[in-house]
């Protein structure tokens, strides 16, 4: 015998009604987002979008708090390398800040005038990092983007953080190199050293067997190789 059907209470009816309303809202939001993605770029809309994140005392600048809010809306960690790619696309001059002239030109080139459009592009922005020449451009851009513009060098803490973002997963020795930098005498890195770290990561084998001590590498890399061989390779050989 089938179980007796339980009569819906007012609470059940309220829950059911709320569930249907939530479903309608989600459907409406999805449709609105799809419509938004299909619309052509609008500079006016881009400006309104920018103002959602701009500082109250400087409507032409998005500062650190605004960028953090943008990352939350994009569901992206601020330290995700894709945010560096976004900055590169904007040709932003200063770490932690986006100017409206950078924003309007860069977002215009990407045809993004809303969070939804930029979010839809994040995957393709990440993909371009696989192209070695493009990655090299972004890597070199990062040096100027992150340094204090009154200095010609990059402080060691910022350099280490950015190297981790850029080379993690691309260079198997990155953690060892950062360990070396942490205990080294270096307080800053210059442009030549910065660029040579990338070249080293691409051309020198993991066991350092093809490293030429008489080559044109900066002293920084000579010291890293000596430190690594002493701490890791000599230890492995003696065990």
TrEMBL record:
Signal peptide: none
Gene3D superfamilies, alphabetized: Cullin, PONY binding domain, EF-hand
Occurrences of domain DCUN1 (ranges): 41-229
Span list, region Disordered: 1-26
Coiled coil: none
GO terms of biological process kind: protein neddylation
Classification via Pfam families: Cullin_binding
Basic and acidic residues: bias regions: 10-25
Source organism superkingdom: Eukaryota
GO-annotated cellular components: ubiquitin ligase complex
Functional summary from the UniProt entry: Neddylation of cullins play an essential role in the regulation of SCF-type complexes activity.
Protein name per Swiss-Prot or TrEMBL: Defective in cullin neddylation protein
Organism annotation: Actinia tenebrosa (Australian red waratah sea anemone)
Gene name of the record: LOC116287815
């Amino acid at each position: 015998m089938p179980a007796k059907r339980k009569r819906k209470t007012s609470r059940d009816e309220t829950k059911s009604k709320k569930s249907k309303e939530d479903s309608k809202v989600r459907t409406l939001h999805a449709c609105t987002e799809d419509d938004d993605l299909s619309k052509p770029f609008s500079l006016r809309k881009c400006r309104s979008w920018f103002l959602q994140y701009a500082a109250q005392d400087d409507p032409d600048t998005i500062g650190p708090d605004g960028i953090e809010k943008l990352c939350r809306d994009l569901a992206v960690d601020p330290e995700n390398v894709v945010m560096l790619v976004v900055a590169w696309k904007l040709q932003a001059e200063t770490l932690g800040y986006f100017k409206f002239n950078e924003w309007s030109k860069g977002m215009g080139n990407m045809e993004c005038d809303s969070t939804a459009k930029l979010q839809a592009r994040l995957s393709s922005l990440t993909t371009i990092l696989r192209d070695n020449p493009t990655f090299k451009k972004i890597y070199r851009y990062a040096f100027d983007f992150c340094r204090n513009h009154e200095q010609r060098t990059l402080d060691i803490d910022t350099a280490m953080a950015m190297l981790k973002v850029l080379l993690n997963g691309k260079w198997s020795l990155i953690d060892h190199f950062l360990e070396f930098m942490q205990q080294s005498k270096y307080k800053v890195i210059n442009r030549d050293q910065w660029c040579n770290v990338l070249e080293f990561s691409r051309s020198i084998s993991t066991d350092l067997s093809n490293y030429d001590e008489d080559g044109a590498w900066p002293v920084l890399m000579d010291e890293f190789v000596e430190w690594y061989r002493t701490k890791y390779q000599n230890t492995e050989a003696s065990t």
